[in-house]
Amino acid sequence: MPQWLQWSLISAGAIAIIALLGFIRRQMTMLTENRRRQQKAEAFKAKRRQDIVDSIKVIAMAIEEDQVEYSEACLRIKGLLDHIAPELMEKSPFRVFLEVHEKLRHMPTHQARQDTEIRFVEKMDKERFEVEKRYADEIRRAATAIRNHRF
Predict the structure, then answer these.
(1) What's the structural domain count of the chain?
(2) Per-residue CA distances from 80 to 2, 42, 71, 113, 130 (Å)
(3) Could you tell me the residue range of the domain that residue 70 belongs to?
(4) 75 neighbors 104 (Cβ within 8 angstroms)
(5) Residue range 10-33, pLDDT digits in tens
(6) Which of 54, 64, 84, 146 is the most exposed place for a label (fewest CB within 10 A)?
């Protein structure tokens, strides 16, 4: 084999090795970056979940101390539970949050409530207060239970 062919093959091999090392390095960098992004996303999800749990517990404490209307608290807790533990609303005593939500979900809220005629709002408020009165004991028990629940 001629010497120039040997040197050509050695050079081609060295170039192939350098190219493969570059490719491997780029792949390692991409893997590291993907792992970092995934860890950041998981940390964000964990923090968001913990924030939701904290919100549920604060609302439950507000119920226990009569600092919030029960209907509003049930709607909020139901909305938060939908994100982290929807199956919990099918169990006693937490089922009351879903039941109250079902009874009140036809009522307008926020801007829609402000845009509604006053007599109709008063009629809805009367209905809402009746629902709150009917479920008051169950709501308080569920609030205590959910405040002590380990998510």
Answers:
(1) 1
(2) 78, 19, 14, 22, 24
(3) 3-148
(4) yes
(5) 999 999 999 999 999 999 999 999
(6) 54
